[in-house]
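User: quick one, sequence for these C-alpha cells?
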C-alpha cells in the first residue's frame, strides 16, 4: 500500500497556516502520540505556504544527531559553520545566516520531533521564535522529555501549544476511502476507527493486516471488513514498543482485562492483587474510569487487547475466562451485561453446563441484535439439552444470519415437543418468518392462516395472526392485512408484541395512503413500548423501521430520517451484523441524500446497502432500485441500467409492497437513457396502479415526477364516475387535500405554477427551506426556462437562484436541468469560465489567441444564452450549466 493523499484535519491545517501567515505570526507547537499524524499535518501545512512570500525551512530532529551541535538543524543551516568561536557566537552566526537566506521575507521554521533537538538547535529555535519577523512551528511526541528551550517557547508565551487529537470517525472513514481507493461501509469504518483509536499509523497497519486475509472484501464497489485479522509483524512491533516488557504479575493483569474488559476494579484486584494493578496503571497500560459509583478498568488502547488475546496460549486463555466467569458469578451478576458476559466466558472456556443460562443469554444477545453471539449461545444451549426453547431461538437467529435453509430442520427437530398453545404459536411464527422472508415462499401466508385456527388460546392465536397480517401487507393483500391488524389491536387479550406488530401494519398502511400524522402517532407509540416487546420479539423493530422509514421518505421529512439513522438501533444493527436492519437504514439514508440533491452520497449509501444485503433478498431489490435512481440523477445511464437489472434479479414477490419505489426508479432510469417518453408512460401506468391500490401518498410523489418531466398539464385516466379527464396538476391538487403534511401541498403548488416564472422561484425557495434541494433546483430550472423572454433582471435572478441551489447539490443531470441551460460551444464555454474567474478580456484574448472584439462577441452570446447581464451573475449561472 503506497502513500495516500492527505485527508481530514481541516481545522488543524488552517490553524497552522494561520499561525505562519497572520499579522502577529504567533507560532504553534502540536503534541501527540506516535502515529497520530503530526508529521504529515506539519508537512501539508508548510507546503501550503508560498515561497515567494515566506522563507520556509523544515527540519526533522533525530536521536542519531541529538549529540551534535546544531545536528537537529543541519538540514537548514549553511555548511560553512565557523570554527573556534564561542557557543554564543555560533548562535549569532546561525541567526544571521537564516536572515541572509530569508532576504527580507518573514521566516517560518518548522521542526518535526522537536523533543529530539540537541541543545544548540533548541536554543536557536528559541531565539528564532523571539524574532518579530519569524514563526516557529513544530511537533512533539507526548510523554517524551522536552528540551528546556523548546518548553520555554510556550511557557514564555512565544507560541501556542496544543495536543493533536485522534482522527474523528468521519476523517477516519475518508482516510480509509483514500487508502483502499473506494468507500468503506459504515460498520467496518466504525470498527476500524474504534480499534485504531483514530491513529492513522495504526489504521494503516490494521488495513494492511486485514487485506492480507479474506476478511476484507469488496462488493458493489464498497469495502466490508468482518472484524477478523491476523497480527502482522509490523503491527505487533508497534504494539510491543508501547506495551514494553511485562513481568508475570502485570501480564496477568493485562490478560484479565483483555478478556474481561470492562472489568470492575475491585474484581480485578481480587483476582490479580493490588500492586500489579497499580503498576499496570502507572505504566499507562490500563485506565480506570468511574461509572455509577463503580470503577471499571479497560486497556489503554483497543489494540493492546487484540495483541494480548491472540498471543495468549490456549490453555491459559481457557483458564482466565473460566476464572472471570467465576469472579462475576461470585459477585452476584448484578449488572445488566453480566449474564451475557458470563455465558460467553463459560462457552469459550468449555465450562458451560447450564442450558437455561445459555438460553437466557442468547435471548439477550438477540434482543441487542448481536446475531453471531446469539446464534452461538442458542446452538450451545440446544446441544446440552435446551430443547424447544433453544431450537426456537436458534431458528429465528439463523433466518437473520441468512441461514434459513438450516433453520427449518432445526424447527422440525422439536416439532414433537409442542405441548401447548404457547409453544405452537411460537413455532408457527418462527416457521412463517423463515419460510416467508427467509426462503421467499408466498405460500407461507396461506399456511400460517390455516394453522392459526389450530391455536385454541385467543391470545396466542393473535400472535400468529399478527404475522399473517404483516405477510399480507408485504404481498399487497392490504385489505385483509388491515382487517387482521385492527382486530388484534382491538383485542383485550392480544399480547403486547402482537398488538405492536399489528400497529406497525396499520402505520405502514396509513403512511402509503397519506395519513401521515396517524402513522406517526402509531410508530411513536410502538417505539415507546419497545421495552415491553423487544425481549420477546426483537425483530419487530424491522417492521417498525419499515413503517417509519416509508412515512418519512414519503413526507420528505429529512430531519426525521436523520434521527432514526442516528438512533440506538442503527448502532446495534451495525455492531451486531444485523444486516436486514443496517441494510434498510442505509437505503433510507440514501433516499434522504437523494432528496437533498447529494446524489453521489445517495449512490454511495445505496451501494453500501447493496453490499450489506447481498446475501439477503428481503430489501436487496429496494437497495438496487435506490442505486439505480441515484445513478440516473447523476446521469450515469450505464450504472443506472445495471442497477435496475440487479433490482429485478434480486427482488422477491414477498416484498411486493415496495413496488412504488422500484417503479419510480425504473422511470428515471429510462429518462436518464434519453427515453423520456418511456419514462412518462411508465409513470402514468404507475399512477393508475397506485390509485387502484389506494396508495395516495405514493401517487402524489409519482405525479410530481411527471411535473418534473414537464407533464403538469398531461391528461390522465380519471376516477370512475368523473365526467372530465384530470390533468396531473388537477389530480395533485385533489391529493393535497387527502395527503397529510406540507409536501403534498407544495408539490401541487409546483404543478399549478408551471406557467409562472416568479411563482416557480417562490416554490423553489419553499422546497429549499425543507432541505429538498433536488426539487428546488429543478423548480428553479423551470423558472429559468419560463423567464427567458422576460427582462434581463428577472432572467438574472432566476439563473442566480438556480446557481445557488445547484452549488449545494452534486452534479445533477435531469431533463429539467438540461432544458434550463442551452448548449454553449466549446469556445464559448472557455470564454465564460475565464470571464467568471475575473480574467480581463484582453488576457482571455491572449490566452485563446483571439481578438478582443471576438472575445466580447462570445461573451455577449453567452450572456444571452444564460440570461445574465454581467460577470458576477455569470459565475452563478455556470454552476448550473450541465456538462456537454
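Assistant:
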Amino acid at each position: 500500500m503506497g502513500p495516500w493523499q492527505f485527508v481530514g484535519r481541516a481545522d488543524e491545517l488552517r490553524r497552522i497556516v494561520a499561525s505562519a501567515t497572520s499579522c502577529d505570526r504567533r507560532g504553534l507547537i502540536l503534541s501527540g502520540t506516535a502515529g497520530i499524524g503530526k508529521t504529515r499535518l506539519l508537512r501539508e501545512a508548510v507546503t501550503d505556504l508560498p515561497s515567494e512570500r515566506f522563507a520556509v525551512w523544515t527540519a526533522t530532529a533525530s536521536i542519531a544527531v541529538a549529540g551534535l551541535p546544531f545536528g537537529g538543524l543541519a538540514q537548514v543551516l549553511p555548511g560553512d559553520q565557523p570554527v573556534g568561536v564561542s557557543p554564543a557566537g555560533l548562535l549569532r552566526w546561525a541567526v544571521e545566516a537564516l536572515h541572509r537566506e530569508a532576504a527580507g521575507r518573514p521566516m517560518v521554521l518548522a521542526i518535526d520531533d522537536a523533543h529530539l533537538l540537541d541543545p544548540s538547535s533548541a536554543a536557536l529555535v528559541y531565539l528564532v521564535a523571539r524574532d518579530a519577523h519569524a514563526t516557529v512551528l513544530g511537533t512533539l511526541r507526548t510523554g517524551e522529555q522536552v528540551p528546556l528551550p523548546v518548553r520555554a517557547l510556550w511557557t514564555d508565551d512565544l507560541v501556542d501549544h496544543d495536543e493533536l487529537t485522534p482522527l474523528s470517525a468521519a476523517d477516519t472513514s475518508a482516510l480509509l476511502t483514500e487508502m483502499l481507493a473506494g468507500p468503506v461501509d459504515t460498520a467496518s469504518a466504525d470498527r476500524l476507527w474504534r480499534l485504531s483509536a483514530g491513529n492513522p499509523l495504526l489504521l494503516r497497519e490494521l488495513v494492511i493486516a486485514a487485506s492480507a486475509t479474506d476478511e476484507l472484501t469488496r462488493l458493489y464497489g464498497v469495502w466490508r471488513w468482518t472484524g477478523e485479522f491476523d497480527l502482522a509483524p509490523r503491527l505487533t512491533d508497534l504494539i510491543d514498543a508501547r506495551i514494553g516488557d511485562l513481568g508475570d504479575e502485570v501480564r496477568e493483569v493485562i490478560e484479565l482485562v483483555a478478556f474481561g474488559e470492562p472489568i470492575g476494579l475491585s474484581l480485578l484486584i481480587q483476582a490479580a492483587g493490588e500492586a500489579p494493578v497499580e503498576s499496570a496503571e502507572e505504566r499507562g497500560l490500563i485506565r480506570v474510569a468511574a461509572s455509577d459509583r463503580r470503577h471499571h478498568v479497560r486497556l489503554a488502547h483497543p489494540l493492546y487487547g487484540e495483541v494480548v488475546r491472540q498471543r495468549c496460549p490456549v490453555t491459559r486463555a481457557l483458564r482466565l475466562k473460566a476464572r472471570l466467569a467465576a469472579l462475576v458469578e461470585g459477585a452476584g451478576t448484578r449488572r445488566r451485561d453480566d449474564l451475557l458476559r458470563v455465558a460467553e466466558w463459560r462457552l469459550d472456556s468449555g465450562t458451560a453446563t447450564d442450558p437455561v443460562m445459555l438460553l437466557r443469554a442468547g435471548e439477550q444477545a438477540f434482543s441487542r441484535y448481536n446475531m453471531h453471539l446469539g446464534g452461538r449461545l442458542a446452538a450451545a444451549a440446544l446441544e446440552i439439552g435446551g430443547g424447544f426453547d433453544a431450537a426456537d431461538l436458534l431458528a429465528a437467529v439463523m433466518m437473520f444470519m441468512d441461514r434459513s435453509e438450516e433453520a427449518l430442520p432445526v424447527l422440525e427437530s422439536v416439532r414433537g415437543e409442542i405441548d401447548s398453545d404457547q409453544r405452537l404459536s411460537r413455532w408457527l411464527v418462527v416457521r412463517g418468518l423463515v419460510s416467508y422472508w427467509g426462503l421467499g415462499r408466498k405460500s407461507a401466508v396461506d399456511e400460517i392462516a390455516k394453522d392459526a385456527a389450530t391455536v385454541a388460546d385467543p391470545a396466542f392465536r393473535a400472535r400468529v395472526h399478527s404475522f399473517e397480517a404483516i405477510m399480507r401487507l408485504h404481498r399487497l393483500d392490504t385489505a385483509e392485512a388491515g382487517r387482521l391488524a385492527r382486530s388484534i389491536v382491538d383485542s383485550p387479550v392480544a399480547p403486547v408484541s402482537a398488538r405492536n406488530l399489528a400497529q406497525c401494519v396499520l402505520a405502514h398502511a396509513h403512511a402509503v395512503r397519506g395519513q401521515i400524522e396517524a402513522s406517526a402517532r402509531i410508530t411513536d407509540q410502538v417505539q415507546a413500548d419497545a421495552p415491553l416487546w423487544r425481549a420477546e420479539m426483537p425483530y419487530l423493530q424491522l417492521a417498525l423501521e419499515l413503517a417509519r422509514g416509508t412515512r418519512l421518505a414519503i413526507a420528505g421529512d429529512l430531519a426525521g430520517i436523520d434521527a432514526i439513522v442516528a438512533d440506538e438501533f442503527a448502532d446495534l444493527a451495525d455492531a451486531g451484523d444485523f444486516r436486514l436492519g443496517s441494510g434498510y437504514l442505509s437505503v433510507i439514508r440514501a433516499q434522504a441524500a437523494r432528496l437533498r440533491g447529494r446524489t453521489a452520497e445517495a449512490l454511495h449509501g445505496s451501494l453500501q446497502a447493496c453490499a450489506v444485503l447481498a446475501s439477503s433478498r428481503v430489501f436487496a431489490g429496494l437497495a438496487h432500485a435506490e442505486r439505480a435512481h441515484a445513478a440516473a440523477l447523476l446521469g450515469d445511464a450505464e450504472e443506472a441500467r445495471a442497477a435496475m437489472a440487479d433490482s429485478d434479479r434480486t427482488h422477491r414477490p414477498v416484498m411486493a409492497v415496495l413496488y412504488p419505489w422500484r417503479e419510480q426508479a425504473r422511470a428515471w432510469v429510462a429518462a436518464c437513457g434519453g427515453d423520456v417518453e418511456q419514462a412518462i408512460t411508465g409513470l402514468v401506468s404507475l399512477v393508475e396502479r397506485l390509485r387502484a391500490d389506494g396508495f395516495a401518498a405514493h401517487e402524489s410523489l409519482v405525479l410530481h415526477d411527471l411535473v418534473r418531466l414537464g407533464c403538469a398539464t398531461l391528461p390522465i385516466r380519471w376516477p370512475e364516475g368523473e365526467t372530465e379527464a384530470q390533468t396531473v396538476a388537477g389530480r395533485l391538487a385533489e391529493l393535497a387535500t387527502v395527503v397529510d403534511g406540507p409536501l403534498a401541498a407544495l408539490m401541487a403548488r409546483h404543478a399549478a405554477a408551471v406557467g409562472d416564472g416568479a411563482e416557480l422561484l417562490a416554490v423553489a425557495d419553499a422546497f429549499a427551506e425543507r432541505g429538498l434541494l433536488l426539487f428546488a433546483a429543478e423548480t428553479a430550472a423551470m423558472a429559468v426556462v419560463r423567464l427567458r423572454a422576460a427582462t434581463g433582471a428577472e432572467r438574472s435572478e432566476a439563473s442566480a437562484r438556480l446557481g445557488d441551489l445547484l452549488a449545494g447539490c452534486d452534479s445533477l443531470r435531469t431533463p429539467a436541468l438540461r432544458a434550463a441551460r442551452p448548449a454553449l460551444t466549446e469556445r464559448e464555454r472557455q470564454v465564460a469560465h475565464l470571464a467568471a474567474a475575473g480574467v480581463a478580456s484582453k488576457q482571455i484574448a491572449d490566452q485563446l489567441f483571439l481578438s478582443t472584439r471576438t472575445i466580447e462577441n462570445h461573451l455577449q452570446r453567452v450572456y444571452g444564452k444564460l440570461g445574465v447581464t454581467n460577470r458576477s451573475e455569470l459565475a452563478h449561472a455556470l454552476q448550473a450549466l450541465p456538462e456537454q
